[in-house]
Amino acid sequence: MSAESPALLEIADELYALPQEEFTPLRDARAKELKADRKLSAAVKKLKKPSVAAWVVNHFVRREAEQVEQVIAVGVALREAQEGMDAAELRALTKQRRQLTAAVTQEARNLARDEGVKVTQAVADQVESTLTAALLDPECARAVRSGLLTGSLASTGVDTVDVAAAVAVPEALGFSASPTTGEPSTPPALHVVPDDGRARKRDEAESALAAAQETVDETKSALTEATREVEELQARSLQLQSEIDELRRKLTELESSAEETDEALEEAEESQGEAETAYSAAVKTRDAAQRALDDLG
Length: 297
Known about the structure:
By secondary structure, the chain is mostly helical. It contains nine helices and no strands. The chain is about 70% helix and about 0% strand. It is elongated.
């Protein structure tokens, strides 16, 4: 950790606890105050404004740190429990996980609304995705716990997530956000519920959606390649047509020149014939004069 990291984390902790609209002006003001320490000032100036979803999660983490820890603990328990479970038990756990993240997301949404922040369904989906990632992935849990998210997270629990790209500074991983005041809410209970078939249907629907999305991605890739080929051939066709037009223009010019040359050749040949006749007559006249001279001896 660099020398300015503790100070940078402290400043970031303060800034990311602010209402979203206050973040940029106060960040810039702090950077200006720190201009004597050019390196720290530049680092503060680079702190990225959180997205709405990231702000909602950061706010929830600061207001409901204990509940966030419980969510993370549930994630650990679920990961450990699923190792020896059969398919039916895993489906039940998956359903419970969804119930938990949906309930916590609603609480985070309510807290944001109390602060005057409107959370659309699209933003709520990103909040739930981030909380689910924290439940599934230990590294995502560290990022969420920091309260210094700049963007939302998504994880399947299997893939590797670049969590460092979703926090204000890499040192945020391992940092715990400072709590803010407010009455803590009651954490949603995680109850074992009977599998009524909806979880199975949802899993099947999700599988079907994933397969359909894979097909969409494949066909989109093929369409992109076909479109690129068409565009290249269209460009080549235009180029060739242009060359053909130029050759046709040159051919027309050459044909015109050929006609003019043929006419000139015909006239030249007539002149040549006349010149040959005159030359022959001149030679005959000269020869006759030579003979007359010779006779005079």
